[in-house]
Specification:
Elements (H helix, E strand, L loop, with lengths): L1 E7 L9 E8 L14 H24 L12 E13 L2 E12 L5 E2 L12 H13 L2 H11 L8 H16 L12 E12 L7 E11 L4 E7 L6 H11 L7 E6 L3 H9 L7 E2 L1 H17 L5 H22 L6 H11 L15 H19 L6 H6 L12 H10 L9 H16 L25
Parallel strand pairs: 6-9, 9-10
Antiparallel strand pairs: 1-2, 3-4, 4-5, 6-7, 7-8
Helix pairs in contact: 2-3, 2-4, 2-13, 3-4, 4-13, 7-8, 7-10, 8-9, 9-10
Bound molecules: zinc ion.
The site of zinc ion (ZN) has 8 residues, from loops.
């Protein structure tokens, strides 16, 4: 069987001329499932063909529009035609548009309402930036290439350029304030590092955070330190976006870094930040894993391991119940039996658990000493229904930054490149990366967590 796909122009005065776009041939039964319906290649040809015909028709209509000359006396007449290349999601097209000359003053006018500097449609720009926020530029380009007849402007460099442009536009966007005020907002601020490609620097610090309301509204934000993006402005804007007013009660959480506390203060948030339970829980979990991996190959070690496992559980209980001052007792108990593991051999793949336990203990000890003022009774807060940190279980830094930009992917970043990509990534997670290029729209996902977006 064969079909012809024919476009027929319709209008008030009835059907106009028609154009054959493509011919489709298929077997007339279902004997070959591989030839069931359209293939992706045929669909791409079809889309490209329809796009070409429609744009050509639009261009023919546009030519009829004459500009008015600024002198106000003459009539503009066609001087010559210029070809404009424009990349769309459905193919690269050439639009032939006239230039005009005024028959009175001789001034040359371009066409009406055609942005002659544009080389691509807003929709293509936006989809390229959106995909690039979720996967590498190369993978995003490849995915688009697979799915759409984009044609040109789909290389890695173009993807990057358009993404960064979108990021810069988003950075300068004002918040869309909701109509209802929010009584309480939790703010979490965290930091992480990515590898730098800039001279004299190995790492770039990335500050990320999120604001959350009790009804599930959430906005994430982030900025690379010492970039053109001001994290203080982002914090204020995020608070506005979830409905902060004069009367809103703010609770802030950090990982304990003094630099982050300063940022919050500079952003005008005077409430003392609490230590996010997430960061303590991560360290405790690490400690538990190591304790469980300790060798138990003689009775003394079996006994010592039991003491350590129990002491770690106790430590967890103490920190959760606001008894951080007693943490030292648990740490001392562990240290007292550590000598039983002396001479524990390193395995081929990793260093001995006892040595890892020692390192983790020292790190936790140092962390708790530095943070004792910021630790609260988490159990009590939990019972009272108060928050103990971010509701995003894997941590904002991880899903926002590490999954796209971290070191395991061997990526090196420029300060500007990382910062602007992060702006797009935040907007994608926030559901504010709207259908019009570079503009923020009313949130569409305010009630749902962003973790369904795979990266
Ligand atoms: Zn004129």
């Amino acid at each position: 069987m064969a079909w012809i796909l024919r476009l027929v122009k319709t209008g008030a005065e009835g059907d106009g001329p028609s154009t054959d776009v493509m011919e489709i041939g298929k077997p007339d039964d279902l004997a070959d499932i591989a030839r069931l319906g359209l293939s992706l290649a045929e669909a791409k040809l079809l889309l490209a063909g329809v796009q070409r015909e429609i744009v050509a028709a639009q261009a023919r209509g546009h030519v009829l529009r004459r500009p008015d000359c600024r002198c106000g006396r003459g009539v503009c007449r066609v001087k010559d035609y210029r070809n404009h290349l424009i990349a769309t999601l459905f193919g690269q097209l050439t639009v032939r548009l006239p230039r005009f000359r005024c028959d009175s003053c001789g001034a040359i006018e371009g066409g009406v309402d055609w942005p002659s500097h544009c080389r691509s449609t807003p929709e293509l720009d936006q989809l390229q930036a959106h995909l690039s926020a979720l996967m590498t530029y190369r993978t995003a380009a490849d995915l688009l290439e697979q799915m759409f007849p984009v044609g040109a402007g789909n290389d890695k460099q173009t993807m990057r350029r358009r993404t960064l442009r979108a990021g810069a536009a988003l950075r300068d966007c004002a918040a869309v304030k909701p109509e209802t005020a929010t009584p309480a907002i939790a703010i979490t601020l965290d930091s992480t590092f990515i590898q730098s490609c800039e001279d004299g620097e190995r790492h770039l610090e990335v500050r990320v955070g999120n604001v959350e309301t009790e009804t599930g509204g959430r906005q994430v934000f982030g900025a690379v330190a010492r970039s053109d993006t001001d994290i203080k402005v982002l914090i204020g804007r995020s608070l506005d976006a979830v409905g902060r007013t004069e009367g809103t009660v703010l609770t802030t959480f950090t990982d304990g870094c003094p630099g982050l506390r300063r940022i919050l203060a500079d952003a005008g948030i005077m409430e003392l930040p609490l230590l996010d339970w997430f960061h303590i829980a991560m360290r405790l979990q690490h400690l538990k894993q190591i304790a469980n991996a300790l060798s138990a190959d003689d009775p003394a070690r079996v006994a010592a391991k039991a003491v350590i496992v129990e002491a770690v559980e106790r430590l967890h209980w103490r920190l959760w119940n606001g008894k951080a001052k007693d943490a030292q007792i648990s740490l001392d108990r562990i240290r007292a039996v550590m000598h039983h593991f002396q001479g524990e051999p390193d395995s081929r793949k990793s260093i001995a658990p006892s040595r890892r336990l020692w390192t983790a203990l020292r790190a936790l000890d140092g962390y708790l000493i530095g943070q004792s003022d910021w630790l609260v009774n988490y159990a009590e807060r939990h019972r009272a229904g108060s928050r103990n940190g971010t509701a995003i279980t894997e941590g904002t830094a991880n899903f926002l930054v590490n999954r796209r930009m971290n070191k395991s992917q061997q990526m090196r970043w420029s300060r500007r490149g990382a910062d602007l990509l992060l702006q797009v990534r935040c907007a994608v997670y926030n559901g504010t990366f709207g259908s019009t290029y570079g503009q923020k729209f009313q949130r569409t996902n305010s009630a749902s967590p962003p973790r369904m977006i795979a990266a």
